[in-house]
Amino acid sequence: MTEAKKLYKSDAKTALRARANNLRAILGGQISAFPELAIDLAPSSAANDTSFYEAGNICAKYYAANRVPSEAQLIGDLSAMLQLYDALIHGEATTNGAIPGTEGDEPPSMQFEDATQFRFHKRIERNASLSRKVKQIQGFSCKICGMNFQDKYGAIGMGYIEAHHLKPLASLKSKKFLWIR
Q1: Average pLDDT of the residues of the chain
Q2: What are the pLDDT digits (tens) for 118-160?
Q3: Distances 102 to 51, 82, 99 between C-alpha atoms, Å
Q4: What is the per-residue pLDDT for 150?
Q5: Which residues 6+ apart lie within 8 Å of 129 measured at CB?
Q6: At 50, is the secondary structure helix, strand, or coil?
Q7: Are the beta carbons of 58 and 20 closer than 8 angstroms?
Q8: Which of the two residues, 85 and 92, has the higher pLDDT score?
Q9: Helix (H, G, I), strand (E, B), or coil: what is residue 109?
């Protein structure tokens, strides 16, 4: 939501609705247990952030206050929702394994597990805001091999880094969240 507001400014809600529609189409019938496509978070104004979350809703399930299901049912619904999220993150919800927003540049010889890790790698690497913050704090020398492109190539290498991951992506495969410290 925050990124959409920055990128699309006054058209952020339109972009969020379009993205939600696209993700619904990718998930297809998998969202049938969560039929609420429009949600009302009772924003105090149209500019309130909750209205942006309404626009970006992919699917939801409504529970009436006087008919809240058992804890087991709530846990089951949450687990099913997390599986949908996981399917979108890892591209398993599509017929060709592509994640929306990727360039489709996975090498054709890749096995499925490798392609999943490759796409996950690209999603982590492409968070430009996070990347800028890390470079600002850590500098432009790789913490693993010590490579600094400016030292090696002069001015043309200034401000550039191709760094190794401190935690190999293969070790993140089963993780649901990535915490940056």
Answers
A1: 77
A2: 555 555 555 667 777 878 888 888 877 888 888 888 888 788 8
A3: 28, 21, 6
A4: 87
A5: 3
A6: helix
A7: yes
A8: 85
A9: coil
Contacts 24+ apart (CB under 8 A), 35-44: 35/59, 35/61, 36/60, 36/61, 36/62
Calpha distance 23→15 (Å, rounded): 12
Q: Round to whole Å and give the CA distance between 49 and 41.
A: 10
Helix H segments across the chain?
2-8, 12-27, 49-55, 71-90, 112-125, 128-138, 149-153, 169-172
Task: Calculate the CA 151 to chain-centre distance.
Answer: 34
CA distance 170 to 86: 16
Q: Can you tell me the distance from the alpha carbon of 172 to that of 90, in angstroms, rounded to the nearest whole number?
A: 12
Q: List C-alpha distances in Å: 45 to 1, 50, 60.
A: 16, 9, 22
Mean pLDDT of 80-86: 91
The encoded tokens of residue 53 equal 């979350």
91: left (phi over 0), alpha (psi -120 to 50) or beta: left
Digit-coded pLDDT (tens) for 34-82: 999 999 998 888 778 899 999 999 999 999 999 999 999 999 999 999 9
